[in-house]
Amino acid sequence: MARQPKKKAAAGLACSIGSIDPTSAAGLTVDLAVYRALGVAGVCVTTAITAQNARRVIGVSPIDAAFVRRQLEAIWEQSDPTSICIGLVPDSASLRTIRLFLQALARLPAMVIDPVMTATSGHAFIGAPERAELRKLLPLATLVTPNVHEASLLATRAVRNETEAVEAASAIAQAGCAVLLTGGHLAGPRCTDIFVHSGRVRRYGATRLRATLRGSGGILAASIAACLAKGMGLEASIRRARAFVRRAFQSARAIGSGLPQYGATVKRLP
């Protein structure tokens, strides 16, 4: 029998768990592009194949939970990622499988959860069973990055202004994770993200951009995961990732009749 190579920990390796978008505006293909731009290697686990574009979601086909686990096993058999980024998982059985796999690891990497629930077009990707499983995954996360709508669903409360955003983020953080609630959907001339960690609240504000960027939440989560994979601290990773996303907004271009998206140009972002 051939001798199996010894598994080695991989410095600067980020693992994304999520879906495929055929227009490459969101999901795994964008995550991997972000990792390359930020100088880390990337691997991925596919949880669903979607048929969607900027206008509508035509269909979502979840990957069987048993095969999701096989993908996870294949990656960890070979190496230990230093960070994880979880995006769209539209099946409660797969969410449960991911949680049980991660709980059994000898060393849990830094983990960012982007709780994708709806598409830009308004299509609901997950229902009540998936939200319940997603909440069970939160205690394993280093950081959760919901937008206003996602935070409202996770915290089961309205989020209509900055005060309610702080309350919702604080409620989600009770699971034991840090929370960065992105404020792009709140009204006002400035966009303020709410960061809650260990009972402390911090606001990251910036002038609101007029530009549009489809998949911006996933880009933020992936860039934070990339920075964590490189060994940066959580708040330093957030600051670096917010700057990266802002540059991505400014360089985004549309493909065909779609909305502007990351990666539509060949220019490498620093």
Can you give a write-up of this model?
- By secondary structure, this protein is an alpha/beta fold.
- The protein has one domain (12-261): UDP-N-acetylmuramoyl-L-alanine:D-glutamate ligase (3-Layer(aba) Sandwich).
- It has 8 helices and 13 strands.
- The chain has helices spanning 28-37, 65-78, 92-103, 128-137, 148-155, 162-173, 216-229, 234-251; strands spanning 8-9, 13-20, 41-52, 57-62, 79-80, 83-86, 110-113, 143-144, 178-181, 190-197, 200-207, 253-254, 260-261.
- It has a 9-stranded mixed β-sheet. It has a two-stranded parallel sheet with strand order 1-5. A two-stranded antiparallel sheet has the order 12-13.
- Strand 2 (13-20), helix 1 (28-37) and strand 3 (41-52) form a beta-alpha-beta unit.
- Helix 1 packs across helix 7, helix 5 packs across helix 6 and helix 7 (216-229) crosses helix 8.
- The mean pLDDT is 88.
For the structure shown, list the relevant keywords.
9-stranded mixed beta sheet; 270 residues; globular; alpha/beta; UDP-N-acetylmuramoyl-L-alanine:D-glutamate ligase; two-stranded parallel ribbon
